[in-house]
Amino acid sequence: MASLSVGQVAQRAGVKISTLHFYEQKELITSWRNGGNQRRFDRSVLRRIAIIKTAQQLGFSLADITQALAHLPQNEAPSKSDWQELSTQWHNNLDQRIKQLETLRDELTKCIGCGCLSLENCPLHNQDDRLASKGTGAVLWQTT
Q1: Which of 55, 66, 73, 121 has the most CB atoms within 10 Å of its CB?
Q2: What would the DSSP string read from start to end of 25-63?
Q3: Do 61 and 51 touch, CB atoms closer than 8 A?
Q4: Nearest-angstrom CA–CA distance, 41 and 30
Q5: 40: β partners
Q6: Are the CB atoms for 123 and 112 separated by under 8 Å?
Q7: pLDDT per residue over 10-25, tens digit each?
């Protein structure tokens, strides 16, 4: 199977070359150098990049993506069972986030999860500003 140049991968994957360098730096993808010292990629990198782009569109952090890709084989396309395992993990994570977003949507007119917009205290979730001892910002929302 023929390898791909960095330009070919960038074009086929729909990303900039600098994005490929970034992914490599973060160890999300790998390449090697040929005899002419040109960076080369296995064709399976296209599938990994597709997974990375999908995960980013779903809002996963680079740490989440790195952890997910650690369970996939390097330099070969993920199998159906590899993808099923990964998609199950993502499904559970997305379910949690959807629940959080629905809660935020439903409570938005009352409070934004104790950021707190009331400045001093929130009669719903932060009566007498008791959450101040737990830190700044939306401390309640982060634990929902």
Answers
A1: 55
A2: HTTSS--EE-TT--EEE-TTHHHHHHHHHHHHHTT--HH
A3: no
A4: 7
A5: 5, 32
A6: no
A7: 999 999 999 999 999 9
In the chain the domains, ranked by start, together with CATH numbers, are 4-106 (1.10.1660.10), 108-144 (no CATH)
Contact 4, 12 (CB under 8 A): yes
- Report H helices in 1-144: 6-13, 17-25, 45-57, 62-69, 80-107
Overall pTM surpassing 0.85 (yes/no): no
Counting Cα atoms < 13 Å in the Cβ hemisphere of 119 gives: 0
Q: What phi and psi values does residue 14 have, to the nearest 5 degrees?
A: 70, 35
pLDDT band at 74; cut points 50, 70, 90: confident
SS3 assignment, position 5: strand
- Read off the pLDDT of residues 17-66 as tens digits, 9 standing for 90 and up: 999 999 999 999 999 998 898 999 999 899 899 989 999 998 899 998 99
Q: Which residues contact 98 (CB under 8 A, 6 or more apart)?
A: none
